[in-house]
Amino acid sequence: EQVRDILVASGMDEIITYSIIDPIDEARLYMKKNADLDVFIPIKNPLSHERSHLRRSLIPGALITARTNLRFLDRVNIFEVGRVFHPQKGELLPNEPQKLSFLMSGVRIANSWLNQDNENFDFFDLKGVLEHFFKTFHIEDVVWKKSRELPCHPGRCVKILVDGQLLGFAGELHPKIRDSFNLPEQPICVAELDLDFIIKLGIKNHQMNSISNYTPIFEDLAFVINASLPVEDITPVILQTGKPLLQNATLFDVYEGKQVDSGKRSLAYSLTFQAYDRTLTDDEVGKIRNKIIRRLKHEFQATLR
Description:
Shape: elongated
Strand order of the largest sheet: 1-4-5-9-8-7-6
Structural class: alpha+beta
Number of strands: 13
Order of helices and strands: HEEHEHEEHEEEHEHEHEEHE
Largest sheet: 7 strands, mixed
């Protein structure tokens, strides 16, 4: 119920779709013409071919719902909480994990005389909802890692990890899969998360952090790295190296141009240092700063700009 409350407060609508599906619909997610029925749980006495097996994903139901609604509406912003079903070898009953799916498509803001933004939802709208969701649930250390897996568009997909464990995926639906579901030619942003894992993380006792009475020290550092290096690999290393006195590291500038070598780019970070029991000295901060510089140089061949 808390999951539902958070997402409804984020402007999303809840849907409930059939748990009995046509396996061909799930095969389309992987650009296959035929489904591998061995990985599905069949219904002994199905009423129709379209309702013959138990689902393994919530995404097809969301896509079919979006197809129906986008015939009449200019936007859909939906989520679903539900179980999926996986056969277990040697077991009579299936494994029934809970999943959480998202789908966003259409204009970002509903039509109005005040509305000057006619752009469609994109991946970053979905990412914003997910980030707010994780923050509200106090799920920390979320890692967004680039992925090229179906059903998402290559280069527009991420795997979401927490403590090294896969939480789910998010991205823009591949155009060929979009067409196979007869959806309009516009971005279809989808995500599917492991709800059991989310609940496990969310029910941990969240302790309020104490607020320091001592003045923080702010510093900016800029590093030159290879342009091919993912930016998301840098920030966690900076934070880990600066613990426990480095409270925050925010990337505020990315530069590629004449002032750096070809194939390189500059990343500028704003660093916040603060202790809970004393005022930090310049010498203490300097030692942490040098430690960060040495580690980035060692791991990423980064140089201070």
